[in-house]
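Reply to dn_fold:

You asked what the input looked like. This is it:
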Amino acid sequence: MDVFSDALAALRTGAPVSTCTDARAPWSLRFPPVAGAGFHVLLHGTCLLIPPDADPIRLSAGDLVFLRQGNQHTLCSDPAVPPETFDEARVGHSDYIGRIIVDGPGDRAVLACGAYRLDVTRPHPLLAGLPAVIHLPADLGRYPALRASIEQLTTEIDEPRPGSDSIVATLIDLMLLQIIRAWYDTLPSADARGWAAAVTDPAIAPALRAIHADPGRAWTVDALARESGLSRAAFARRFTAIVGEPPLGYLTSWRMTTAGRLLRETDAPLATVAERTGYSSEYAFAKAFKREYGIAPGNYRRHARSTA
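and this is what came back:
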């Protein structure tokens, strides 16, 4: 069980949205907040990203910046330029990627931007452990898989061919995992905390894989400790210290995240969702789900379908 991929798949509430911004100075675009995360990769030129409550970040060609919470932010040629609010109505769409052009007399900047729809009501340690803003400079030789995706993305946007829309959509989707993996790879082992440490810890990682592989199983701390090869007490202390919550607390949280995904993506009856997430009855599941989400599972499913 690849818990990285599993966690991201469960958090997603829809397909990623992508936009190509082609702007000539002077220009400034303010991006509104989104329910999820997003990134910008500068394909050509230079520009500034102004995150909320932080100093501007100067971007050069090949640089990538990731915003974990999808907060409002600004991209510009110069902070002195009054920003326009990014308006999707201005975006001309092909099948998968929107394009926005800002005319001007100055230098050109081209960016590929991706927004990921995520369940922000269910923060997971995979994302919660990341900085609010991650800047990955275009360092030669670093993050080879991510760099290969950026190079192909640049080619498909600069020289579109039949199939480019589908390729761009796939690359945008793939890059979420590559960005997160690249960030964790930059951390020295001694600095790894939370999810970064948990997924590589020789005792905790097997327990996480077991939970993700079978969330409906009647797990106990003793059973998870046996997966880890530690005593019950030692496992519970280590799991809580690294992950940030007790083993059964994480199990409950993951069951609810899994339930949300099943309700959004399948037509499985509530009794089936209850069984697959470890609840003995539909009533017990519905009660637990409403306590966590603040809405009954049936209403959650209808709302998720209507906003997809």
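The chain is about 45% helix and 20% strand.
Hope that clears it up.
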